[in-house]
Amino acid sequence: MSRAAIAKDLVVAQVRALKMPGLGRVYEALARQAREEHWGYEEYLHEVLSAEQTSRRDSAVRHRMREARFPELKTLDTFDFTATDGSVSPTQIAELARGGWIDRAENVVFAGPIGTGKTHLATALGVEAARAHDAVDDFVAPQRARTQPARGHSSGSSPSRPHAARTDRAGRRGRATRRRSGCKGE
């Protein structure tokens, strides 16, 4: 077995032991690029560690999105503000998407008739929160909320509070005093 093959096997074993899958996926291609472009050791190390950091960040976002259990993935870029006849301010929604309301521990309530986009906006804000490193509570069906304890908690225990909680029906899961956001409709 050649020295290069032994080194590759050792790197693969170390990547697994250190739980660095992002680095494992890119180290060979980056090593080739580093040799061709005459990178210094520090530059190569920076690139492989950046790849691992990006992989971990992406994995954490995927995990938070899965844990939030969104009924459907809805984003702000797919929301049709023109269909709301001006009742929803794109500027105000963009401000909410920045997450300041989460940092201030405030609530946002979308009120309006059926089919106006309330769930879409609530889910989209949850997606933005998940992308911004905030835990988002799951989107619980009303019947399950009444009959089952929160995920990961036995009956009688108190679940930890997420940074951002979403609910599809007022009063379904009381987290704090509700504060009207000023948005009309969905």
Describe this structure in words.
With 186 residues, the chain is an all-alpha fold. It folds into two domains: 66 residues, no CATH class; 116 residues, P-loop containing nucleotide triphosphate hydrolases (Rossmann fold), CATH 3.40.50. The protein is 49% helix and 0% strand. It contains seven helices and no strands. The longest helix is centred in the N-terminal third of the chain and has 28 residues. The N and C termini lie far apart (64 Å).
Classify the secondary structure makeup into a structural class: mainly alpha
Q: Strand-and-helix sequence, N→C?
A: HHHHHHH
According to CATH, what is the class of the largest domain? Alpha Beta
Low-confidence spans: pLDDT under 50, at least 5 residues? Answer: 139-148, 150-162, 169-186
Overall helicity: 40-55%
Q: What best-fitting shape do the alpha-carbon axes yield? A: elongated
Distance between the termini: 64 Å
Return the domain count.
Answer: 2
Main sheet specs: none
List its salient traits.
single chain; 186 residues; mainly alpha; Rossmann fold; 2 domains; 7 helices; 49% helix; elongated; disordered C terminus
Which SSEs are present, and which pair or pack?
Layout: H1 3-17, H2 21-37, H3 41-68, H4 90-97, H5 100-103, H6 118-131, H7 142-147
Kindly summarize this structure in a few lines.
The chain has helices spanning 3-17, 21-37, 41-68, 90-97, 100-103, 118-131, 142-147. The chain is mostly helical.
